[in-house]
Write a structure and sequence with these properties.
Chain B: Keywords: Oxidoreductase, Thiamine pyrophosphate. Chain B: Its cofactor is thiamine diphosphate. Chain B: It holds the Pfam family Transket_pyr. The complex is a heterodimer of chains A (342) and B (327). Helix content of chain A is 41%, strand content 11%. By secondary structure, chain A is an alpha/beta fold. In chain A, strands 2-1-3-4-8-7 form a 6-stranded parallel β-sheet, sandwiched between helices. The longest helix of chain A is centred in the first third of the chain and has 26 residues, at 19-44. The termini of chain A are far apart. Chain B folds into 2 domains: 2-183, 3-Layer(aba) Sandwich (Rossmann fold); 196-324, 3-Layer(aba) Sandwich (Rossmann fold), CATH 3.40.50.920. In chain B, 37% of the residues lie in helices and 20% in strands. In chain B, helix 7 (151-163) links the parallel strand 6 (144-147) and strand 7. By secondary structure, chain B is an alpha/beta fold. In chain B, the strands form 3 sheets. Chain B has a 7-stranded mixed β-sheet, with helices on both faces. Classes of the chains: A alpha/beta (342), B alpha/beta (327). At the A-B interface, helix 5 and helix 6 of A face helix 3, helix 4 and helix 5 of B.
């Protein structure tokens, strides 16, 4: 039997936030959670199709990293991409409409759950195959450096955050891109969402070195382990990595220790994870934890948080109505978007 | 006019386009300091710097994906496959990301990318270095695929490919880099979607591409002496295929032979024959014939290797045999 990795005691100080920032982050986390709950409901009611991978439990990572980025920074995602898209600013309407396969979806109904794209929001997209999104994100990071240094564009200081899971860190593209990003000092964040399981493959059974952040050291870039259930801890680490990247000091590997509260996808019977393990992680719910922090620090009170939750319920209901009422793609446009001229 | 080697025609194309557009850059294995394995990027590293002529580690799938990400965000990268066979390692990126991503994203992103390098069967390079991946990649939606065959079309096509807003797989042939031709001094472009009528004729349409164009032309000489008048068409565009030009020829000759260097199974000719049957069946006076490479890994032994690919003599015999068929 493999020895399960014990959770370290995290020493990193949480990010200092204003009340305004706290509420912005809270709203983003609530949006992620409520949106995904609605997806599950619609999927089980037969309104949504395909492979749908929900993000519940991991909200502190998306909100912690992406809400520390600038609007013009780039985000690259995976098949578990709805919430990254939302944090990156893609309207809930566009993401929900995409899940319903509608023309008003962010990928015009051609992509689906695993392929959320938005050039307008510098969302490089959801990539369904393990690891393939990392090289694409590397290209966006390269592009920033290229523009600044060869085209004299001083405004080209964008940072690219590439998200992927623990399973991806045994894939060659991960190592190849760590090498190139460090070699060329590219402005990039490698954000590992280590939720301990690749469908039914426990992380410890798949890797010779379960502490993923340690894999950075051989490539000469900083690797940082952070509590992925603590949004302010993630934010603090992300802010430091973003500042380094923007200053031209190169990439950072951030391992967020987190957990998904649902199965791998809505088609996963989720039989291998023990009830004890699930209960232990449920008790560390990043949203409840952040709520307690906001109140304890006098950054918000129950009323304010309740108002945000009600607002987001409305946003998600509005997104659902919008998606349901939106038109299907026109069959005469079946061949559109194959080539750039279409 | 200046006599120019094919490899240098390609180099001129890249140099001119890099001079014209700051977003054009080259990346790949040994493209920079070393100047490229076939010297297609010779001296460009010194002229344009290390970011614009980027030497990459040996990581085909990741640097191809990286070029796609750079293209999505506004650069116009040219990836050199040191040998196009290595691109098997980047098949996922070329298919899922370069070819399909624009569609999957509902038109969010365009991918102005060129992937170029030497393909084809060389001289005793062994199976892995003797691939004809155009046949493997032809089914990928969203890609354009071209094959150059002369210094003139190599230069004009590469310039067009660099300016195109779509991912273009650009096949050179490992045995054609030292072809020489007088090239115009003034700038020119060759379109990516047009076949070239190499030799007009009346009797039979011979469709070919890349190095096989030269094998076909070697067969044409004895055929002319015997009184035959074949029309030779170099496809240039392997995807999409220029059926307008093929159709004009077939309506004239009513007979078609396809000569290709890829393997027969699932090859370029297989696709063209099916499409000719769809489009021009009533024009045909004889079944379309294809001469393809054998369905085997290319053997190292020189004699076996020459038996693997089509030779001019076989083309000559095929034309004579087809012309004997009476309607």
């Amino acid at each position: 039997m493999v020895q399960e990795r014990t959770l370290p005691t995290f020493q990193s100080p949480p990010a200092q936030i204003s009340a305004e920032e706290g509420l912005m982050i809270y709203e983003d986390m609530i949006l992620g959670r409520y949106f995904e709950d609605k997806c599950a409901e619609m999927y089980y009611r037969g309104k949504m199709f395909g492979f749908v991978h929900l993000y519940n439990g991991q909200e502190a990572v998306s909100s912690g990293v992406i809400k520390a980025l600038r609007d013009d920074d780039y985000v690259g995602s995976t098949y578990r991409d709805h919430v990254h898209a939302l944090s990156a600013g893609v309207p809930a309407r566009s993401v929900m409409a995409e899940l319903f396969g509608k023309e008003t979806g962010c990928s015009k109904g051609r992509g689906g759950s695993m392929h959320m794209f938005s050039a307008e929001h510098n969302l490089l997209g959801g990539y369904a195959f393990i690891g393939e999104g990392i090289p694409v994100a590397l290209g966006a990071a390269f592009q920033s450096r290229y523009r600044r240094e060869t085209m004299g564009d001083d405004a080209a200081d964008q940072v690219t955050a590439s998200f992927f899971g623990d399973g991806t860190t045994n894939n060659g593209q991960f190592f190849e891109c760590l090498n190139m990003a460090a070699l060329w000092k590219l402005p990039m964040l490698f954000v590992v969402e280590n939720n301990k399981w690749a469908i039914g493959m426990a992380h410890e059974r798949a890797t010779s070195q379960p502490e993923i952040y340690r894999k950075a050291s051989v490539f000469g870039l900083p690797g940082i382990e952070v509590d992925g259930m603590d949004v302010l801890a993630v934010r603090a680490v992300a802010q430091e990595a973003i500042a380094r990247a923007r200053a031209g000091e190169g990439p950072t590997l951030i391992e967020c220790l987190t957990y998904r509260f649902r199965g791998h996808s809505l088609a996963d019977p989720d039989e291998l994870r023990s009830a004890d393990e699930k209960a232990k992680w449920q008790s560390r719910d990043p949203i409840q934890r952040f709520e307690a922090y906001l109140i304890e620090q006098n950054l918000a009170d129950d009323e304010v948080l309740k108002a945000i939750r009600q607002k987001i319920e409305g946003v998600v209901e509005d997104a659902l109505s919008f998606a349901q009422d939106s038109p299907e793609p026109d069959p005469s446009e079946l061949y559109r978007y194959i080539f750039a001229e279409d | 006019m200046a006599e120019t080697f094919l490899f240098n025609a390609l180099r001129q194309a890249i140099d001119e386009e890099m001079g014209r557009d700051q977003t054009v850059m080259v990346l790949g294995e040994d493209v920079g300091v070393y100047g490229g394995s076939y010297k297609v990027t010779k001296d460009l590293h010194g002229k344009y710097g290390e970011l614009r002529v980027l030497d990459t580690p040996i990581a085909e799938n990741s640097f191809t994906g990286m070029a796609i990400g750079a293209a999505m965000t506004g650069l116009r990268p040219i990836v050199e496959g040191m040998n196009m066979g290595f691109l098997l390692l980047a098949f996922n990126q070329i298919s899922n990301n370069a070819g399909m991503l624009r569609y999957t994203s509902g038109g969010n992103f365009k991918i102005p990318l060129v992937i170029r390098g030497p393909g084809g069967v060389g001289r005793q390079l062994g199976a892995e270095h003797s691939q004809r991946l155009e046949a493997y990649f032809q089914a990928v939606p969203g890609l354009k695929i071209v094959a150059c065959s002369t210094p003139y079309n190599a230069k004009g096509l590469l310039k067009s490919a660099i300016r195109d807003d779509n991912p273009v797989l650009f096949f050179e042939h490992v045995l054609l880099y030292n072809l020489k031709e007088d090239l115009p001094n003034e700038e020119y472009l060759v379109p990516l979607d047009r076949a070239e009528v190499v030799r007009p004729g009346q009797d039979v349409t011979i469709i070919t591409y890349s190095r096989m164009r030269h094998h076909v032309m070697a067969a044409v000489k004895p055929l002319e002496r015997k009184g035959f008048d074949p029309e030779v068409i170099d496809l240039i565009a392997l995807k999409p295929i220029d059926y307008d030009t093929l159709g004009q020829s077939i309506r004239k000759t009513h007979r078609v032979i396809i000569v290709e260097e890829c393997m027969k199974t699932g090859g370029i000719a297989a696709e063209i024959i099916a499409s000719i049957n769809d489009r021009f069946f009533d024009e045909l006076d004889a079944p379309v014939l294809r001469l393809s490479s054998q369905d085997i890994p290319t053997p190292y032994n020189g004699r076996l290797e020459s038996l693997t690919i089509v030779q001019p003599q076989q083309i000559e015999e095929a034309v004579e045999k087809m012309m004997q068929l009476q309607v």
